[in-house]
Amino acid sequence: MPAASDPLDDAAETFAAVRRRLFAVAYRMLGSWTEAEDVVQEAWLRWQGTDRSVVDNPVAFLTTTTARLALNVAQSARVRREAYLGPWLPEPVDTGADPTLGVERDQEVGTALLLLLERLTPTERAAYLLRESFDYAFGEVAEVLGTSPANARQLVSRARRHLSSPQRAEVAPGVHRRLMETFLQAAQSGDVAALERLLAEDVVTLSDGNGIRGVARLPVTGRERVAAFVAAFRARRFWDGAHVEQVEANGRPAALVRDAEGVPLAVLTMRATDAGIEELQWQLNPDKIAGFLRSGSRGD
Q1: Are 199 and 227 in contact (CB under 8 A)?
Q2: Is the separation of the CB atoms in 129 and 140 below 8 Å?
Q3: Between 23 and 106, whose confidence is greater?
Q4: For 66-94, how does the pLDDT look when each residue is reduced to its tens digit (9 = 90+)?
C-alpha cells in the first residue's frame, strides 16, 4: 500500500501554490513588504491550525484570512502613521531580483498609486483592492469585510471617488529608465538648469525619513524649488563617494544609493509622464530600505 500523505505536507503544498497571491493582497493593503510578509506568515500559522477537512475552497479561505489580517494591521498602522514625522512613503519591493515576487508589473503596485491609496480608510482600501485588483464579486468582498453586499458596493464606489483625480499616463519603462539616469547625472553634478529641463511644472518631491536629521519633513513642489532642492544635495555632500545602483522597485526603474562604505542611504523612485518627472520619492528610512534589500536578497 502507498504511504499515507502527511496532512501538514499537503497543507504546505496548498499554501505554497497561493502564497504569491496572498503576498500581493497584503502588500497592496499595507504598502510595506515587511508587514505583508508578517501577515502572510500569520496566515500560514492560521492555516496550520485550521481543520482543513471542512474547508471547501482553500484558495478562498486563505485569501479571506490574509485580507482580514491585513485589514487589522492597516487599521493599527493608520494610527501609527498619524504620528509619523514627515511624509510617509510605501516600503518599496525589489522586483528586479525576482519579477514574480507576488507584485505584478502593472500600474496597481506603483509606489505613486500605493501612496494615493493612503487617502482611503483601511476598509475602503480593502474593498477597492479586492474588487478592482482581484476581481472579487461584491458578495465576496462583503464576506471578507463582514458587511452586506450593498455596503461593500458603497465602499468601492466611495473609494473610486476618492481616487478619481485625473492622472497622466506614465512613460514606457525604457523612457523611464533614461529619465532616471539623466536625472541622477544632473543631481550629482548639481546642475539646476539640467534638472529643471527634466521636471514637470507641478513636480513634487517627498522624503521619507521619519524624523531623521537633515531629511525634509514637508513636500517640496514646483519645478524651480525642486531643482534647487535636489541640487543642494551636492553642497551637503550627499553624493560624495556614493555608489548608485540601478534597480527595479515595484516594476519600475529605481536607484539604490550607498555611501562610500557600502551602507545604503536611499531608494529613489519616481513617476514620469510626457510632461516630465512629476513626482520624486526619496526613501531614506533605514528600516524601509532594509525591507527593500530583504525583498530582493541584496543584503546590506
Answers
A1: yes
A2: no
A3: 23
A4: 999 999 999 888 777 778 888 999 999 99
